[in-house]
Design a protein that fits this description.
mainly alpha, two-stranded antiparallel sheet, signal, 9 helices
Length: 238
């Protein structure tokens, strides 16, 4: 393997990392559209709050995608995969389950699920939101004008309000697809993590049982092992 250049990075890891990068960038873009120094009128409050909520959701997407990439990277190791193979076989036998591919292995080999999230994130065009919010921010950031003795605060035109509402509606439809892709990746990642934990626990238990069994028969430590090991366990090892 070393002569061939070492192990390759799984496509699932690359795609997950890309999804994290895209989500982080989009979150920053949307967050930047909502200015803390601007007081938004009720006519656009709902839309502005939705943009902020999307920014938070995108940060969560980035966190999940990063976590998934790290999980897959951790177990993309031949020695660990061998341990998982043994542990999963022990687990299936102990629970009378048919032999099957462990979920962590399936996740490492699955680049389609994270790629779907990448595609959904790339489809989240922010130009309409950006144009609408920049226009609104420019207007609302303008200095209050005074006519005679009456101060007039900046106001938004109907066209500005409608432009933002339209941009939010269009983005919402695309964001739904991204959320669906995220849910699929989340389910895949959760199953992978649980299967790895289960297999590793079964592997550790199998090693412990094998060591106790061997030690109970060893002249060097048999007395000690028999003294500290429950009789019920020893009977199962006979």
């Amino acid at each position: 393997m070393a002569a061939a250049g070492g192990l390759a990075t799984a496509g699932s890891v690359t795609q997950s990392a890309q999804a994290a990068t895209l989500a982080t960038s989009l979150s920053a873009t949307l967050s930047g559209l909502v200015l803390a120094t601007v007081s938004y009128p009720s006519s656009v409050t709902g839309s502005v709050q939705q943009i902020s909520a999307w920014a938070v959701s995108l940060t969560a997407m980035a966190t999940l995608a990063t976590s998934h990439a790290k999980l897959l990277t951790t177990y993309s190791d031949p020695s660990l995969l061998i341990q998982l193979t043994t542990g999963w076989d022990v687990y299936c036998r102990a629970n009378s389950l048919a032999s099957s591919e462990i979920a962590i292995s399936s996740a490492i080999g699955d680049s389609v699920t994270p790629a779907a999230l990448v595609a959904a994130l790339k489809a989240l065009g922010t130009s309409a939101l950006n144009d609408a919010m920049r226009s609104i921010n420019t207007t609302l950031s303008a200095t209050t004008t005074t006519t005679g003795t009456t101060a007039t605060a900046p106001t938004l035109s109907d066209s500005q309000v409608k432009a933002l509402a339209s941009a939010v509606t269009a983005f919402k439809s695309l964001f739904t697809a991204a959320t669906s892709a995220l849910n699929a990746l989340s389910a895949k990642s959760s199953a992978a993590a649980n299967s790895a934990t289960t297999a590793q626990a079964a592997y550790s238990n199998a090693i412990a049982v094998a060591l106790i069994s061997a030690s109970a028969r060893s002249p060097a430590v048999s007395s000690a092992v028999n003294a500290i090991t429950p009789a019920s366990v020893l009977s199962l090892l006979e």
